[in-house]
Amino acid sequence: MSIDPNGDVTIQGVSLRSLPKVSLHDHLDGALRPATIIELADAAGIELPETNASKLGAWFRSQSDSGSLVKYLKTFDVSISVMQTAAALTRVSREFVQDLAADGVIYGEVRWAPEQHLAGGLTLEQTVEAVQQGIEEGEEAADRDGHSIRVGQLITAMRHTDRSLEIAELAVAFRGRGAVGFDIAGPEDGFPASNHRAAFDYLADNFFPVTVHAGEAAGPDSIRSALIDGRALRLGHGVRIAEDLQVVTEEGDEVQVQFGDLARWVRDREIPLELSPSSNLQTGAIAAWGKTLADHPFDLLYQLGFSVTVNVDNRTMSGTSLTRELALLVEAFEYDLDDLEAFQFNAASAAFLPVEEREELVEMIAEGFDI
Ligand SMILES: [Zn+2]
Question: What family, per the record (predicted)?
């Protein structure tokens, strides 16, 4: 098999892009179309590092290849700078949904941090409303094109600021009006989830679903804090849970592994890992294992029975799509359609939706993969 220039691949005679998929870890400010950034920057009088869409796309990709999470996060200053009005937020959210639909995604969760979109004078509530407006326009536009898609918002607080309780209250206030969950993002190392205990207590009191970026730029201790302080139902990446595993012997396909208590808990409780292959490579999250995708502990975690899901993290920064991430895994680990279907079942089961709706997604996936 080979990945075509659009990032698609034909596997067992089927286009991967055409198959139903679920996208759980997908940042709004990491998914802007370069052409849209240029138009919005032009209108707002903002200077960009490149003014041609393909060159700007290439700039994002090269900045993101630095191997440092901090440098990678700097590219967001550019995308966030053009997302400071209600109209801009609505437009990028609409395009976010349309791009997912065109990639075969049937359900997505978009995460973004309202506190980063107040420079133009919007209130926190207005930012959430503007994004919701765009999501609904995108769902309707996709519907008209014959793609059925639904997208929920994950309201994100930043680890290095102190507004998490306010953001948690915002998320709960928008339950039933677009918000399906809460997340914390930003620099992980040095900013533990325990700093946000009040926000997590509030969310737990309100039975509001939480995912936490953890096990990306920091190791098992950060995952422990996400689970204990954050009561996280999913782990944003969580890839460094593999540091709590010790490979004892490896003979061909037979791997003997010793589990730490934390890894055993995450595996046995089926706490979903929002793994993002390209991003994990670019941010150095898998540096302990190697420098290529084939070194990613994705396959080890999958074979050991962890609930692995495949994600894009930031489509613009990594120049990727969910189809392309799956194709890269097929290339690295020779997965077949049954494996890819298993990842989609895991993601559907992990969605922050009522159980009936998750079951519907599972049915749609089973139907789509039944070829
Ligand atoms: Zn992320």
Answer: Belongs to the metallo-dependent hydrolases superfamily. Adenosine and AMP deaminases family.
